[in-house]
Design goal:
34% of the residues lie in helices and 32% in strands. It is an alpha/beta fold.
Length: 180
């Protein structure tokens, strides 16, 4: 099922102009798909570039939340190498999503992390979140609750909506679970 999901996501992101890499070879990370928006996305006063890194919860992260957190930190370091401007001075920021896929479900700790943790642009010159895709339960877990005002809310919402739209097209009976 993960292969079908990966293929579906890959085709749709490519058709939306993303640069897509299958089985990406990023330093310190194993993944199934990496996608980068080829254009800057206007998000309020600034612009962002979307980076989606898809990884397998069961195989790549060994079903461990500490590995999930470490994967986000490693992804952040890799992505930020694309930016030459110091983090605090950026007018274009990376919008990073660690997209974790499973056919076996997630533990409560991983779900809480996805629902309640995000990266604020005022702290590190980036915005980011972890999104979980439970293919067995047909559920997507993400931080962003629409209509909630906070630093970085526009790019968080753009990424969450784009990924939800793709997930919902892949699994029409799927559910989006967001922080309340």
């Amino acid at each position: 099922m993960i292969d079908e999901f990966k293929q579906f996501i890959s085709e749709h992101l490519k058709s939306s102009g993303y640069q897509v890499t299958d089985q990406p070879n990023l330093p310190g990370l194993r993944g199934i798909l990496f996608a980068k928006s080829s254009t800057k996305i206007k998000t309020g006063f600034s612009k962002s570039i979307n980076y989606y890194f898809f990884t397998d919860w069961d195989y790549d992260l060994l079903r461990r939340t500490d590995q999930l957190k470490q994967a986000y930190q490693t992804l952040s370091k890799v992505v930020n190498q694309d930016f030459k401007v110091a983090r605090g001075w950026r007018m274009t920021i990376p919008n990073i999503v660690l997209a974790v896929v499973s056919t076996e479900g997630f533990d409560e700790q991983a779900i809480k992390y996805a629902l309640f943790e995000y990266q604020s642009p005022f702290i590190g010159g980036e915005v980011g979140q972890t999104v979980l895709f439970d293919l067995q339960k047909q559920e997507m877990y993400s931080y962003y609750p629409f209509g909630y005002r906070q630093p970085g809310s526009i790019p968080l919402g753009v990424a969450s909506k784009e990924l939800w739209d793709l997930f919902h097209r892949f699994m029409p009976n799927g559910n989006s679970i967001q922080r309340k």
